[in-house]
């Protein structure tokens, strides 16, 4: 679907809005109010782009984009838990968090763009890989639904790239603010903040391994897959600052995400097995997918809001 003009226009638009976001933040501390405004802007831009796709290409483009975007955005919210653990473990301040997330987004674009190109090319040549993706999503869903809380704990200190960086790279022992590289005694060294960036980037690799197969279960069109990923990633930084103080309130989100991944994994396997039927009922399949995903997220968020944990203190 994506013509060269559409690809070029979209990439230019991404560069412009990222530059505007960076200029607006200006390295200042990000307040919840400011993060809320920017989150609304990013969501509005994504919905506007879905409207553009609908105008130009109809529901065959807009509905898969929206479905993939919702999945990516939901998985991104879950990823914020890991980012919060990383920043807490390394005692990263608000301004440094903004800088890390910004460059993390740039790295995510490059990484996911590469994985999407490879993934869609492989799926086109080896259709049986869709079964592999489906089984992988079912396994991921099982882990989300049935793993114990202590099994999900993330220890940033065990990150292999962090260990490699400390062993191989010349690391400064001083705090240099927001800098990634400095000179000490005429020698170029990396700062501790750069090592945290390595942890963030490698964490995104794990996120991509979940999210890209999930989106490929919705559409194998490279432009739909990449643009939905890009729009979700663009809003990740502001969304982090918006919900970082509310993480505990989304305790049922993992259940909702588990149901979604189980659904799209099973759907991908069935669609591959009954490809002819799926092609003739493409619109119905996509609308049902979007409905199930939105319903699962809505129920998990409402349950997190209204159902109190068993160990919650009683109201006075």
Describe the structure.
By secondary structure, this protein is mainly α. The chain has one domain (4-158, 209-306). It has helices spanning 4-25, 32-57, 59-89, 94-125, 129-146, 160-168, 192-216, 222-234, 236-243, 253-273, 275-280, 282-306, and strands at residues 181-184, 187-190. It has a two-stranded antiparallel ribbon. Helix 1 packs parallel to helix 8 (222-234), helix 3 packs antiparallel against helix 7 (192-216) and helix 4 runs parallel beside helix 7. The radius of gyration is 20 Å and the shape is globular.
Q: Which helices and strands, and how do they pair?
A:
Blueprint: H1 4-25, H2 32-57, H3 59-89, H4 94-125, H5 129-146, H6 160-168, E1 181-184, E2 187-190, H7 192-216, H8 222-234, H9 236-243, H10 253-273, H11 275-280, H12 282-306
Antiparallel strand pairs: 1-2
Helix pairs in contact: 1-8, 2-3, 2-8, 2-9, 3-7, 3-8, 3-9, 3-10, 3-12, 4-7, 4-8, 5-7, 5-10, 6-7, 10-12
Give a short summary of the structure:
The chain has 316 residues and is an all-alpha fold. The chain is built from twelve helices and two strands, in the order ααααααββαααααα. The protein has helices at residues 4-25, 32-57, 59-89, 94-125, 129-146, 160-168, 192-216, 222-234, 236-243, 253-273, 275-280, 282-306; strands spanning 181-184, 187-190.
What would the keywords be for this entry?
mainly alpha, about 325 residues, two-stranded antiparallel sheet
């Amino acid at each position: 679907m994506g013509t060269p003009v559409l690809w070029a226009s979209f990439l230019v638009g991404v560069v412009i809005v990222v530059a505007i976001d960076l200029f607006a933040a200006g390295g200042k501390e990000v307040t919840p109010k400011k993060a809320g405004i920017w989150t609304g802007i990013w969501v509005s831009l994504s919905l506007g782009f879905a409207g553009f796709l609908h105008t130009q290409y109809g529901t065959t483009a807009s509905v898969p984009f929206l479905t993939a975007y919702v999945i990516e955005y939901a998985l991104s919210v879950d990823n914020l838990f890991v980012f919060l653990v990383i920043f807490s473990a390394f005692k990263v301040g608000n301004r440094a968090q903004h800088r890390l997330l910004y460059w993390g987004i740039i790295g995510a674009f490059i990484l996911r763009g590469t994985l999407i190109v490879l993934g869609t090319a492989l799926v086109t040549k080896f259709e049986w890989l869709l079964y592999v993706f489906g089984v992988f999503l079912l396994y991921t869903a099982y882990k989300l639904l049935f793993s114990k809380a202590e099994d999900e704990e993330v220890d940033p200190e065990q990150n292999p790239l962090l260990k490699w960086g400390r062993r191989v790279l010349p690391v400064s022992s001083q705090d240099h603010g927001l800098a990634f590289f400095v000179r000490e005694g005429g020698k170029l060294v990396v700062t501790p903040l750069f090592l945290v960036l390595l942890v963030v980037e490698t964490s995104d690799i794990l996120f991509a391994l979940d999210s890209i197969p999930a989106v490929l279960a919705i559409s194998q069109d490279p432009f739909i897959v990449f643009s939905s990923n890009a729009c979700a990633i663009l809003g990740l930084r502001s969304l982090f600052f918006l919900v970082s103080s509310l993480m505990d309130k989304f305790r049922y989100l993992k259940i909702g995400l588990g149901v979604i991944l189980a659904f799209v994994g099973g759907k991908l396997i069935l669609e591959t097995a009954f490809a002819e039927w799926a092609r003739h009922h493409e619109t119905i399949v996509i609308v049902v997918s979007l409905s199930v995903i939105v319903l699962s997220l809505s129920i998990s968020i409402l349950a997190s809001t209204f159902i109190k944990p068993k160990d919650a203190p009683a109201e006075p």
